[in-house]
Specification:
The complex is a heterodimer of chains A (287) and B (273). Chain A has 287 residues and is mainly alpha-helical. Helices cover 76% and strands 4% of the residues of chain A. Chain A has helices spanning 2-20, 25-32, 35-66, 71-86, 89-103, 123-126, 129-155, 158-166, 171-201, 213-224, 227-256, 268-275, 281-286, and strands spanning 106-110, 117-122. In chain A, a hairpin with a 6-residue loop joins β1 (106-110) and β2. Chain B is an alpha/beta fold. The termini of chain B are far apart. The chains are: A mainly alpha (287), B alpha/beta (273).
């Protein structure tokens, strides 16, 4: 009964939106597959994946440092997390793109304590929109991933480390071969969450002029003034991306749950098929 | 490096009864583990107070005592899973290294079996057994697998080689853990209450493996509540209470006529049923 009422309300809501004519759906449809929007979609995906990878790499490194007995390592990691988690990612993006080229005029990679320069470029050419977006989003994500990985490492039973120590394994080997593989099961679900969040947070890169989805959409509506339609287009694509990521996360989790739980949870398809058997409760509601 | 600290214990070791499958007496002179004045406290609790103990090669020493008497802590100090506050521990004549490569190398030579098995949950039984030899001893994979299978055969679980630890019974897991420790060819085996987490039926299958090891002359230090094992396999029983070694004797003497009141009291409680 409750399900039927909810379905009814949903139908009403959809009718209300369509009838209000607040947006011209022909325009929405026209720009949905606009070339510029599709390039923006690709850029959103590229920057999200790369920034997430930077975040995961940094996160693993920072969490291992944070758990180290060496106070220099753990304090450095603590300070990093404190700073990057404590300031808005929007400010960090602006900082990389606007402030850094003002302070440092050139970007150079050199061999320490010598004058040998391996790579040199004016900072304004090095710190492109893409680079600023990658650094801003990736370094910020690293701080969050560090906490996720740290929690996962702590969740692995200490007996596992002791058994590895008793075999004569050194701490780096123990981390790589024994602890991290077991921490994966705990790392995967929140990391999927972080990636879904990253897909949307990447829209902030529009402020450093990176041509991702939102930037492309707003570039178009600033000339043709179809604000609602283009924001709808962007939203539709964000929903598509996050939906795909959600499904991917579900199956990834299911894979890593093997060996840990006795029976795997049903996939959505399996669940629907099971529910369609006549006589099941929700089948009866619809009748 | 001999000092008077452990001499007090030696007479106990010299008056044991000869038991099955014993190693050559000449071998016994090699002192594998020497503890002198070992002290350890956890906060206010003094877990170990001035422990002197010598274990010779080929010897099976059983540590017994009430819970909280320090026997597990003592066992864990020998491969430095617990650090000590004072005293010295010599393994095969060398002081126990503080940390790093030297400590890792020493630990590789000391097998350890835990109460809670601590098998690597993400690896199969065979992978558990071969990880140490491959990664620590640099033995080729094929050779490690072959030797691993032989060890699993020996502890009677060769058919479980490709299963994950969670799929095994407690007794099978503990036997796998023993095989994992043996795979490193240890000089010394430490058993920290190896049967305390097991059902009575499974206790026997693990003890059978341990008795077999003892017969083959493996040097073993065993923390246990299994008096049957102490009687049949131990050369020496070390009774601990309140962080001290209260009494050291061969098992026959210890169980029939303990010399201290504390040991008599302990035995009367556990053997009453």
């Amino acid at each position: 009964m409750a399900a039927a009422v909810l379905l009814g309300l949903l139908a009403l809501l959809i009718r209300l939106i369509v009838n209000s004519r607040f947006a011209d759906f022909a325009v929405v449809r026209h720009y949905l597959f606009n070339r510029s929007i599709l390039v923006g979609l690709r850029n959103t995906l590229v920057i999200s994946v790369l920034a997430q990878m930077v975040g995961i790499t940094l996160g693993v490194t920072l969490s291992v440092m944070r758990l180290s007995k060496n106070p220099v390592l753990s304090v450095t990691s603590w300070l990093y997390i404190w700073f990057f988690r404590g300031t808005p990612v929007l400010v960090q993006l602006l900082f990389w793109f606007n402030a850094v080229p003002q302070v440092f005029k050139t970007f150079a990679v050199s061999v320490p304590f010598t004058h040998i320069v391996l790579y040199q470029k004016p900072m304004v050419l090095f710190m492109t929109s893409f680079m600023a977006a990658l650094l801003g989003l990736g370094l910020n994500e690293g701080a969050y991933m560090a906490e996720i990985v740290r929690a996962a490492i702590i969740s692995v039973d200490e007996g596992q480390t002791e058994a590895a120590q008793a075999l004569g394994m050194r701490s780096g080997l123990i981390m790589r071969r024994v602890v991290l593989p077991q921490a994966m099961r705990v790392i995967i679900p929140p990391t999927g969450n972080e990636f879904i969040s990253m897909l949307k947070t990447s829209s902030l890169a529009s402020v450093v002029l990176y041509g991702e989805l939102l930037r492309r959409a707003s570039d178009i509506y600033s000339t043709n003034l179809r604000v609602v339609e283009l924001l709808l287009d962007a939203s539709i694509w964000y929903l598509v991306l996050t939906s795909i990521a959600t499904i991917g996360q579900y199956y990834l989790e299911r894979r890593f749950a093997r060996g840990a739980s006795r029976e795997l949870p049903l996939t959505p398809l399996q669940r629907i098929r099971r529910n369609l058997v006549p006589g099941r409760p929700w089948f009866r509601v619809l009748r | 490096m001999a000092s008077p600290g452990f001499r007090a214990v030696l007479p106990g070791a010299l008056c044991y009864n000869r038991r099955v499958g014993e190693a050559d007496p000449a071998e016994d002179k090699r002192q594998l583990v020497v503890l002198e004045g070992v002290r350890k406290s956890f906060g206010d609790l003094q877990a170990l107070r001035d422990i002197d103990l010598t274990v010779s090669a080929g010897e099976v020493v059983v540590l017994i005592g009430p819970s909280g008497s320090g026997k597990s802590t003592l066992c864990r100090c020998i491969n430095r899973l617990e650090t000590i506050d004072a005293g010295t521990i010599l393994i095969d004549g060398m002081p126990l290294p503080q940390e790093g490569k030297a400590l890792a190398r020493l630990r590789a030579d000391i097998g350890m079996v835990f109460q809670s098995f601590n098998l690597f949950a993400h690896k199969t039984v065979l992978q558990n057994v071969t990880l140490g030899p491959i990664k620590v001893r640099d033995i080729p994979k094929a050779e490690a697998a072959e030797r691993g299978m032989a060890l699993l055969e020996r502890v009677g679980i060769a058919d479980k080689a490709d299963r994950y630890p969670a799929e095994l019974s407690g007794g099978q897991q503990q036997r796998a853990a023993i095989a994992r420790a043996l795979a490193m060819d240890p000089k010394l085996m430490l058993f920290d209450e190896p049967t305390s987490a097991l059902d009575p039926e499974m206790i026997k299958e693990v003890l059978d493996v341990m008795i077999e090891l003892a017969k083959e002359g493996t040097t073993m230090i065993v923390v246990t509540h299994e008096m049957g094992f102490a009687r049949s396999a131990a050369r020496r029983v070390v009774f601990m209470d309140g962080g001290r070694i209260v009494e050291t004797a061969d098992p026959d003497t210890f169980f029939s006529s303990p010399s201290t009141e504390r040991a008599r009291d302990f035995l009367s409680k556990i053997l009453a049923h």
